[in-house]
Amino acid sequence: MRITAIREVSVPLQGNLSNSLVSFAEHTVSLVAIECDVRRQGRPLVGYAFDSIGRYAQPGLLRERFIPRLLAAAPASLLDDSGMAFDPARACAVMLRNEKPGGHGDRAAAIAALELAFWDLNAKLNDEPAFHTIARRAGRTVRHARAPVYAAGGYYYGSGDGCERLRQEFQGYQDRGFSKFKMKVGGAPLAEDLARIEAALEVAGEGSRLAVDANGRFETAAALRYAQAIAPYALRWFEEIGDPLDYALNQRVAQDYAGPIATGENLFSLADVNNLLRYAGLRPDRDILQMDAGLSYGLSEYLRMIQAVEAAGFDRRSMHPHGGHLINLHIAVGLGLGGCEAYPGVFQPFGGYSPQCALSGGEVGPSDAPGFGLEQKPELAAAIEALDRR
């Protein structure tokens, strides 16, 4: 068994929205396909995946370094011991050859897209949904093929932004079956953000159903002001308060703010996660970890992160992967995590789930399609078709 082709394409995100720091209007995502020589119904099996949402595609890194390394590798070096499936960890090691340690940025996301495509391909070789393949590799059995999910929205949409629009947005999510929500803060004056939080709570009903995300906006003094101001709302969590590598800031806020803190989505390696666990003052009884396999070398590295998190005293149910899409839904279900994000109204064509993924009781279950089921998502059809033509 061997790879016969690898393709990539950069796909722009749709829509014009912003968080407290960046506009997503120019952001793109790397969509990749790995084709092998196994054929089903007269067609070669293809594994599809992408890196994540909210950054930029990595076409140069993929074309110049990582795809050529995979294509040049001895076919057996990419297979597991049985020779009947690909080994994503071995593929990652091939891609990292001659790379210096550190520098965990776009490189980590480019490799992740390809590593995740091997998981999709393996699941298709087994003719099963990816969450089963993931669970088996982790030595687990899936007993509940669903994951708790929350609707992420409440962005700054430019002119016409206001509390009424926020209420209408969250009411629309609630009408679709979501019972928990997340919104952005830090992109407006504190008084305005507090009014927006109160508008969202009119729909959410109570603080335990609403999280807020500052996207790394605050320095220490501003972080403490916001923490003090939002404390009476008893919110679900306060996310990405300051720079993701400013562990001292996170520790300082954790000393004063009794509510849950969420962080980790902008850490791209096990080494960074270990430093977070050592120095950021996180509290295993309440805080949330949001590392994203699509930004951090793929699922093989993410599995090592879980081991570190559990060794530090956290339950894996404290882990809620960033990025509301099908790949992380399969990861959350397969690994028994606490839940995952959903983008029901934003970040198309990648955000949200396919129509076959039913939402009920605040939970979503993957479909029974082999792999991640990306081919079932109507919004992705044109991008996958364009990728297949390359």
Short structural description:
This protein has 390 residues and is α/β, with parallel strands linked by helices.
Describe this protein's structure.
This protein is an alpha/beta fold. It has two domains: 3-127 and 381-389, Enolase-like, domain 1 (2-Layer Sandwich), CATH 3.30.390; 147-375, Alpha-Beta Barrel (TIM Barrel), CATH 3.20.20. Helices cover 36% and strands 15% of the residues. The protein contains twelve helices and twelve strands. It has helices at residues 59-72, 88-95, 106-125, 130-137, 163-175, 190-204, 220-230, 247-256, 270-279, 299-311, 326-335, 381-389, and strands at 3-12, 28-40, 43-50, 147-152, 181-184, 210-213, 238-239, 261-263, 288-289, 340-342, 359-360, 363-364. The strands form two sheets. Strands 4, 5, 6, 7, 8, 9, 10, 11 and 12 form a nine-stranded mixed sheet that branches. A three-stranded antiparallel sheet has the order 1-2-3, sandwiched between helices. Strand 8 (261-263), helix 9 and strand 9 form a beta-alpha-beta unit. The chain is globular. The protein starts with a strand and ends with a helix. The mean pLDDT is 94.
